């Protein structure tokens, strides 16, 4: 028997957002210990045409809550993108986790075949079943932004490894 999309989505989002919060805490401590302006990391990017760390975390948390909301058939919560500090990013992650925790397995019933439309009415409009939305769109995008946030910090000398990325002790 295949695990439900509820279990798949919530398990992945909880684990990886928790791990991202841990990596950000290490980055904040890294700045304090080495007397580095946190903005050096918060605005760091891997390449000029990529988002900086702040935006990577914002987008990762957005994917976690928007994918979960669409699969549950509820409205996607609106979030302003005003974070400027590691503490702000931690708050954003906490709010995303709290939203995901508020969803029930019952809300996900039948979502495998539910039609999901992204960016309706625009040239970027895409149609998915709930299952293909989670597995071929939502999770890959989420992982990309979490991984890029991790890579930005690792590239800039924050001592994090695979266990930190996975959120494992």
Commentary on this structure:
The structure is a single chain. The chain has 169 residues and is mainly alpha-helical. The protein has a single domain, classed as dinb family like domain (Four Helix Bundle (Hemerythrin (Met), subunit A)). Helices cover 61% and strands 5% of the residues. It has 6 helices and 2 strands; from the N terminus they run ααααββαα. It has a two-stranded antiparallel ribbon. α1 packs antiparallel against α3 and α1 runs parallel beside α5. It is globular, with a radius of gyration of 17 Å. The mean pLDDT is 96.
How far apart lie the N and C ends?
30 Å
Number of structurally distinct domains: 1
What is the number of E strands?
2
Please list the strands of the largest sheet in the order they lie side by side.
1-2
Number of H- or I-type helical stretches: 6
Low-confidence stretches: none
Range of strand content? under 5%
Mean pLDDT: 96
Structural class: mainly alpha
**Main sheet record:** 2 strands, antiparallel
By CATH, the architecture is named Up-down Bundle
Shape: globular
CATH class: Mainly Alpha
Helical proportion? 55-70%
Report the radius of gyration as a whole number of Å.
17 Å
SSE run: HHHHEEHH
């Amino acid at each position: 028997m295949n695990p439900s999309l509820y279990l798949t989505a919530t398990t992945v989002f909880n684990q990886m957002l928790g791990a991202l919060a841990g990596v950000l805490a290490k980055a904040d401590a890294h700045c304090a210990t080495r007397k580095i302006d946190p903005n050096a990391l918060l605005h760091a990017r891997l390449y000029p045409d990529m988002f900086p760390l702040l935006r990577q975390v914002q987008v990762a948390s957005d994917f976690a809550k928007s994918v979960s909301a669409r699969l549950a058939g509820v409205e996607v919560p609106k979030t302003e993108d005003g974070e400027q500090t590691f503490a702000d990013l931690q708050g954003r992650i906490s709010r995303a986790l709290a939203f995901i925790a508020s969803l029930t397995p019952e809300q996900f019933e039948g979502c495998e075949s539910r039609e999901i439309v992204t960016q309706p009415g625009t040239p970027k409009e895409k149609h998915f079943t709930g299952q293909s939305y989670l597995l071929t769109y939502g999770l890959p995008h989420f992982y990309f932004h979490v991984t890029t946030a991790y890579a930005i910090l690792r590239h800039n000398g924050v001592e994090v490894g695979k266990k930190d990325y996975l959120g494992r002790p």
